[in-house]
Amino acid sequence: MTRKKFEGKRIFVLDTNVLMHDPTALFRFAEHDIYIPMVVLEELDAGKKGVSEVARNVRQVSRYLDELMNGATGEEIEQGIRLADSPYANDEKTREGRIFFQIREHQDALPDTLPGTKVDNTILNIALRLKSKYTDRQVTLVSKDINLRIKSKIIGVHTEDYYNDKVLDEIENLFTGTQELPDDFWDSHSREMDSWLEEGRTFYRINGPLVQRWSPNMFLYSTQGDNFEAVVRSINGEEATMELAKDFRTENQSVWGITARNREQSYALNLLMDPEVDFVTLQGPAGTGKTLLALAAALEQTIEQKLYKEVIVTRVTISVGEDIGFLPGTEEEKMTPWMGALMDNLEVLAPGTIEDDWSQQATQDILRKWLKVRSLNFMRGRTFLNKIVIIDEAQNLTPKQMKTLVTRAGPGTKMICLGNVAQIDTPYLTDTSSGLTYVVDRFKKWGHSGHITLQRGERSRLADFASDEL
């Protein structure tokens, strides 16, 4: 059985979770029409209260719909609200679309295997009725709910996930921040090469076709002979300026007593210790050293070099298992159970051994004086001046939440985002739509940001074996 091919405008039936996830979804379907069932409006009304990100999104959807329907007559609503009248429909194609609302009850068209008045089944019933009514147009149910999409396919309704929030088609295409140079690189790029020393740093100016594929603060390396490692400082057309990267794998280049154990960790420390790089993202599996490297660099630059006033650490409070309920105490005390990774790494970074009383006291002093643990819930409206802000578990943030956090940075502030896109716990968020993926992709061409994807775990042989085999 071949699927019928449709041309022209399509009809998209929106599930509630799409609008809760992205309020601007109303304006993301080009010239096609949108149909909103009445049960979706009911669910939006039920979810409008509260201070959560979902509640804010619901209220924004309601404001969009209110503006669109302002002054519309009953006949205009029945014929569809024109998106051309909305200032948010910036794209020319979008202005051709309309929004339709369910204004009358649809007869039951569902099979007997889907009885009852469950919201999902009601939406499926509406999609089926629209499909039988508009035989010349493709009717598509759009939902972030995988189970609803499965049921939709079973009963013959075309369905799709909401793709507009996806930064990349495949997570394998995510910028890694590194690139191995081909064997013939110097033959094809060294004809007009310049090199010079400046304040003890070695620079190269290179021309060639590969330059257009590079980004500022990207690391280039060669495994042939001299083990050349450099960071791209600037790009102008087919001309790039590179600087030899520091090798933090040697003891004389240690940071707060920590040395890099592999190439990617060394590159990460280059970015973390560079005062010209304001925004650093580190992505990689558990055990690759993201938190340890970030904390070591933060303590070195705050306590030893006096470049920053203090270190602020925050993360998303999403449980892996059952929620432990409300926690007593101040903001910092409430965040303590979520900061186990911070405490574990401080034990490594603090001098002495954990059994030593002086070591324990030193750790507490560092925590009290230089490190501040803050909750994401109270970040809106704040401005950080001359501070290092470490955002842990950033893969669980939405692009909107990430924007809220990054825009808190004031003069002299460095922001570090850490995460693993393979361990996302936030509902309806995927590796290609995560806020971490979003900022890595959007910042890769900016000269004051840098990203490294850490590859190799460095915890223990047990952890490495478990990561590979389990």
Q: What distinguishing features does this structure have?
A:
470 residues; alpha/beta; Rossmann fold; six-stranded mixed β-sheet; elongated
Describe the structure.
The protein is of the alpha/beta class and 470 residues long. It has three domains: 11-160, 3-Layer(aba) Sandwich (Rossmann fold), CATH 3.40.50; 171-244, Beta Barrel (Elongation Factor Tu (Ef-tu), domain 3), CATH 2.40.30; 272-469, P-loop containing nucleotide triphosphate hydrolases (Rossmann fold, 3-Layer(aba) Sandwich). It has 15 helices and 18 strands. It has helices at 16-21, 38-46, 53-69, 74-79, 119-133, 146-154, 185-189, 263-272, 290-304, 331-335, 340-349, 357-369, 399-406, 435-443, 461-469, and strands at 11-14, 33-36, 81-82, 98-101, 139-142, 158-160, 178-180, 194-198, 201-207, 219-221, 229-236, 239-244, 279-283, 310-315, 371-373, 387-392, 414-419, 449-453. The strands form three sheets. The chain has a six-stranded mixed sheet. Strands 7-10-11-12-9-8 form a six-stranded mixed sheet, with no helix packed on it. It has a six-stranded parallel sheet with strand order 15-14-16-17-13-18, with helices on both faces. Helix 13 crosses helix 14. The two termini are 41 Å apart. The model is unreliable at 318-324 (pLDDT under 50).
